[in-house]
Amino acid sequence: MLLLVTGLCGVGALAYLGVQEALRARLASDGMAAPTMKLERYEGGTLSLADLKGKVVMLDFWATWCPPCQAEMPSLVKLAKEYEGKGLVFVAASRDDMPDAPMFVQEFILSRMPELAPYVVYAPDELAAAFQVTALPTLYFLDREGRVVDAQRGMLDEAALRRRVEQALGL
Fold first, then answer.
1. 95, 122 in Cβ contact below 8 A?
2. C-alpha closest to that of 123 among 37, 57, 44
3. Which of 10, 46, 122, 150 could form a disulfide with 141 if both were Cys (CB 3.0 to 4.6 A apart)?
4. pLDDT tens for residues 104-129?
């Protein structure tokens, strides 16, 4: 009986790892260079991921209507502030539907998370397609050369986010 249970646990673990690998395979691959397009910032002006070379970028695709995105965002902002001095830049790429995205994002920021404002950009379909974003949240880490080094589809808790931040920063 013990042998059967152990075998089933092993099969279950392999299946889980296989599913995780399949999900990761559907994301932009490690080493992919970030697109150079200009992104409109919530607070005005533009931002290009190419302008962030020399920094590690934590790029989060999210939307105001996405409950896991809302739950994860406080941890992302906290870690962005904590690791900024070590070279981390947080970019919160809103996938709210255009042309109403600015209205939705403003309402979310004013009513729920004012500290999110400096990090928000509006992510056009072209950017989401380049990063193969098919579900929210989707998180990427870009190295100091602007290349993908890690990706995650789905929400992470703060401890898992911290591990990924530190790994991306080489800490």
1. no
2. 37
3. 150
4. 999 999 999 999 999 999 999 999 99
Q: What are phi and psi of 83, to 5 degrees?
A: -105, 5
CB under 8 Å to 46, separation ≥6 — which residues? 38, 39, 40
CATH class in words for 2-169: alpha beta
Helix (H, G, I), strand (E, B) or coil at 39: strand
Most distant CA pair in the chain: distance in Å? 65
Q: What is the DSSP pairing of strand 120-122 with strand 56-62? A: unpaired
DSSP-derived pairing of the beta strands 56-62 and 88-94 = parallel
28-43 tens-digit pLDDT: 788 888 998 999 999 9
162 vs 42: CA distance, rounded Å: 25
State the angle between helix axes of 158-169 and 67-83 in degrees (0 to 180), rounded to the nearest 10.
Answer: 40
51 Cβ neighbours under 8 A, 6+ residues apart: none
**This prediction's pTM:** 0.84
* Residue boundaries of the structural domains of the chain: 2-169
